[in-house]
Automatic annotation (TrEMBL):
Parts of the chain that traverse the membrane: 18-36, 129-147, 167-185, 254-275, 316-337, 382-404, 416-439, 474-501
GO molecular function: retinol transmembrane transporter activity; signaling receptor activity
InterPro entries: STRA6-like
Any one GO biological process: vitamin A import into cell
Pfam annotation, one family: RBP_receptor
Compartment list: Cell membrane
Domain of life: Eukaryota
Organism: Mandrillus leucophaeus
UniProt keyword annotation of Transmembrane helix present: yes
Sorted UniProt keywords: Cell membrane, Membrane, Receptor, Transmembrane, Transmembrane helix, Transport
Membrane topology, record value: Multi-pass membrane protein
Protein name as annotated: Stimulated by retinoic acid gene 6 protein-like
Main location: membrane
GO cellular component terms, A-Z: plasma membrane
C-alpha cells in the first residue's frame, strides 16, 4: 500500500520491513511479562520446567469472554491494528514466497506475525504488574507512533487523492497510538503513586461485576409500573440499561470495524479515481474519433451512448458512497442492539428467536465460533459495503435511465406514459388479488361465532359457488404465478444483498440456516457468553467463592473465636432454615418442587398443590 500511494516519493521507512523487525522488541516485552507472571501450579521435580520455578507463566492479551473493564482501551488497541488488518484483508501482505496452493498457510503466518507484533499493546494493558507494563507499553507505542509519523511526514501526498493522501490512511492509527501513549502514562503515574505509598493498592478483582450484581438485584425486586413515559428514541432505537455492559470483545470488534470500513472506503475511492482517469483517457479517444469523422461516422450514436453511460456510472457511483456507508454504519450499531437483545433472551431462558437446530449447538463449535466472530464480523461488513454499494449503484442507474434521462432528452411525456401504463397494470393485478380476498371473506366463509371474534372461522360456506370460483381462477392464477415467482426472486436477491453484512440475521431459508457460517458463528458466540457471563450464574459462583474464602479464613485463623462479636450467636442451620422460609413465602410455587421427606405421602403433596392453585 505504501508504494502504491507514494509512487513519486521514496520513504526511508518500509512499513512491511518494520513489521518484521518489530517482532524483536515484541518478543522481549513478552518474555519480561512472562517472567513476572507466576504460575499457579508448579511442576514436579521430574519435569524439566521445574528448573524455572514458578516463573514464566502464560500471559494473555485479554479475556475474550468475561472482560468488562478497560473496554475502550482494548478497543483503541484493536483500532491501532486497522492498517495491518487491511493489509491482510487485501491479501497484499505476503511475508513468504510459497506456492499458490499453500496460500492459506501464508495468510495464517501473516496473521500470526501481525498479531505477535501488536501483542504487547494488549499484554501491557492487562498485566497485573502495571508499573513495569506501563513503561514497556509506553516505549513500544512510542516506537510505533514515531515510525508512523516519520512515514507520513516524508510522503504525505499520493497519486490518487492528491494532498495528504497518506495522512488519510494513517490518521486513525496515529490517533489510537496517541491514546495508548496517554493511557500507559496514566497507568504509570497511578502505579507509581501506589508503589510510593501515596495511594492504596486496589483490592483483588471480584468475579462478579457491578452491573451483573445490579442485574440480579433487579430480578429480585418486585416489578414496578413505569412512572415516566419512554421517548421515541428509547422505544424505537435504543434504551440505555445501567445493568448491562458490552464485553471488551464486542467494543474492540466495533471500533476496529469502524476504522476498517473507513479505510476500505478510502481505498475504494482511490481505485475509483484511478478507473475514472482511465475512462477519461478512453473518452478523449472517443471524442477525437467523433471530431475526426465530423459527427457523421457510423459509430457516432453508439459512442455518444457509451459516453453517456460512463458519465452516468461515475456520477451514480460517487452519489451512492454516502448511503452505502451510512447503511453499514447503522448495521454496526444495530449489531450491538441485537447482541444485547439476544443475550438477555438467553439469560431469561428464551430460545424461540433461534432456529430449532441451534437450540443445542455443539460445545466445540461454540468455542471455535467465539474465536471466529470478530474477524468474520469485520470481513462481512467490508464485503457487505461493497455489495450494497454495487446494488445501490444499479438501482441508481435504473432511476437515471428510467426517469431522469428521458426528461433530459425531452422524452418526458413518453416516460410518463410508460410509467402510467406500468403503474396501472400493477394496480389492476393487485386489485384483482384484493378482490379475491374480499370475495372469499364475504361469500365463502361462515359467520363469526361471537361478536368479540376478530375474523370469521375457517369454515367453508356456499361450497358449490366456491368450487366454481376456484375452477375459473385456476387458469388465471397460472399466469399470475409467473409474476409472483419473479417478484419472489427479485425480493430475495434485494433482501439477501441488503442484509449480507448482518451476521446476526441469517439470509438462508428455514431449514438451511446451518449453511450460513456467519450466523452459526454469531449463535456460537452468544452461547459462550451466555454460559460464562450469565449474571445469575456468576453471582452464584461469587457467593460460593466468598463462602469458601470465609471458611478458609476461619480455619487458618488461630484465635478466630476471640474476634467474634459479643452478641448472641446464631447457628448456620437456623439461619439457613430462616432464609428457606422467607424464600418459600415469597415464592410459594417452589414448595411443589421441593423433595418430599420419607414421612410425607403423595396425598399430602396433592392437597398442598390444590391449596396453592386455589
Amino acid at each position: 500500500m505504501t508504494r502504491q500511494l507514494n509512487g513519486t516519493c521514496t520513504s526511508s521507512v518500509d512499513m512491511e520491513l518494520f513489521l518484521h523487525y518489530s517482532l524483536i522488541p515484541s518478543l522481549f516485552i513478552i518474555l519480561i511479562l512472562s517472567f513476572l507472571q507466576r504460575r499457579e501450579h508448579r511442576r514436579q521435580r521430574d519435569d524439566t520446567s521445574y528448573l524455572l520455578g514458578n516463573r514464566f507463566g502464560i500471559i494473555m492479551p485479554l479475556d475474550f469472554v468475561g472482560t468488562f473493564s478497560n473496554r475502550w482501551s482494548y478497543g483503541i488497541a484493536f483500532g491501532a491494528t486497522a492498517n495491518k488488518v487491511m493489509f491482510l484483508f487485501s491479501e497484499g501482505y505476503q511475508p513468504l514466497q510459497i506456492p499458490q496452493w499453500a496460500q492459506a498457510f501464508e495468510l495464517l503466518i501473516g496473521g500470526i506475525e501481525v498479531g505477535l507484533s501488536h501483542f504487547p499493546f494488549f499484554a501491557c494493558l492487562s498485566s497485573e504488574f502495571q508499573l513495569v507494563s506501563s513503561i514497556l507499553g509506553f516505549c513500544y507505542s512510542l516506537i510505533w507512533f514515531a515510525v508512523t509519523v516519520l512515514q507520513v511526514s516524508q510522503c504525505p501526498h499520493g497519486q490518487f487523492v492528491g494532498k495528504y493522501e497518506t495522512l488519510m490512511f494513517y490518521w486513525p492509527s496515529l490517533l489510537c497510538l496517541a491514546f495508548l501513549l496517554g493511557r500507559f502514562l496514566h497507568m504509570f503515574v497511578k502505579a507509581l503513586r501506589v508503589h510510593l505509598g501515596w495511594e492504596f493498592q486496589v483490592e483483588e478483582k471480584s468475579v462478579l461485576e457491578t452491573h451483573q450484581a445490579e442485574h440480579v438485584k433487579q430480578l429480585l425486586r418486585t416489578p414496578r409500573p413505569q412512572e415516566k413515559k419512554k421517548s421515541w428514541f428509547q422505544t424505537r432505537i435504543y434504551e440505555w440499561d445501567p445493568c448491562f455492559q458490552f464485553p471488551s470483545r464486542m467494543i474492540g470488534t466495533i471500533v476496529l470495524a469502524f476504522i476498517c470500513l473507513y479505510l476500505f472506503i478510502v481505498i475504494e475511492f482511490c481505485v475509483f479515481v484511478y478507473v475514472r482517469d482511465e475512462l477519461d483517457v478512453f473518452e478523449n479517444k472517443l471524442e477525437s474519433y467523433i471530431t475526426f469523422t465530423n459527427h457523421s461516422g457510423v459509430l457516432t450514436p453508439v459512442i455518444l451512448q457509451v459516453k453517456e453511460l460512463i458519465s452516468v456510472t461515475k456520477g451514480v457511483w460517487v452519489a451512492t458512497i454516502l448511503p452505502a456507508s451510512l447503511t453499514c454504519v447503522s448495521y454496526l450499531f444495530h449489531i450491538l442492539v441485537c447482541y444485547r437483545k439476544h443475550i438477555k433472551r438467553l439469560w431469561a431462558g428464551d430460545k424461540h428467536f433461534l432456529p430449532l437446530k441451534f437450540h443445542n449447538p455443539a460445545s466445540s463449535a461454540s468455542v471455535v465460533a467465539i474465536a471466529r466472530y470478530s474477524g468474520w464480523q469485520i470481513a462481512y461488513v467490508l464485503w457487505g459495503y461493497l455489495i450494497i454499494h454495487v446494488v445501490q449503484s444499479l438501482c441508481g442507474m435504473a432511476i437515471m435511465y428510467g426517469l431522469v434521462l428521458p426528461i433530459v432528452h425531452n422524452q418526458g411525456l413518453e416516460m410518463l406514459q410508460g410509467l402510467g401504463i406500468g403503474i396501472l397494470t400493477i394496480s389492476i393485478v393487485v386489485g384483482l388479488m384484493i378482490l379475491q380476498m374480499w370475495i372469499a371473506a364475504s361469500f365463502f366463509l361462515q359467520p363469526k361465532l361471537g361478536t368479540a371474534d376478530k375474523q370469521k372461522p375457517l369454515a367453508l360456506n356456499n361450497r358449490k359457488a366456491f368450487h366454481n370460483f376456484s375452477y375459473f381462477l385456476f387458469f388465471y392464477n397460472v399466469l399470475l404465478g409467473l409474476g409472483a415467482c419473479l417478484s419472489r426472486l427479485l425480493i430475495s436477491c434485494l433482501l439477501g444483498t441488503w442484509l449480507i453484512a448482518r451476521i446476526d440475521r441469517t439470509i438462508m431459508q428455514n431449514g438451511y440456516e446451518g449453511a450460513d457460517m456467519g450466523f452459526s458463528a454469531w449463535i456460537g458466540m452468544l452461547y459462550v457468553d451466555h454460559y460464562h457471563t450469565n449474571p445469575v450464574l456468576v453471582s452464584f459462583c461469587h457467593i460460593l467463592i466468598a463462602n469458601h474464602k470465609e471458611k478458609k479464613l476461619q480455619q487458618t485463623t488461630k484465635y478466630w473465636c476471640l474476634n467474634q462479636s459479643a452478641g448472641p450467636r446464631v447457628s448456620a442451620r437456623s439461619r439457613t432454615r430462616w432464609f428457606l422460609l422467607q424464600t418459600l413465602i415469597n415464592n410459594p410455587r417452589l414448595i411443589i418442587h421441593r423433595k418430599l421427606k420419607s414421612g410425607h405421602s403423595s396425598q399430602e403433596s396433592q392437597i398442598l398443590m390444590a391449596c396453592l392453585e386455589s
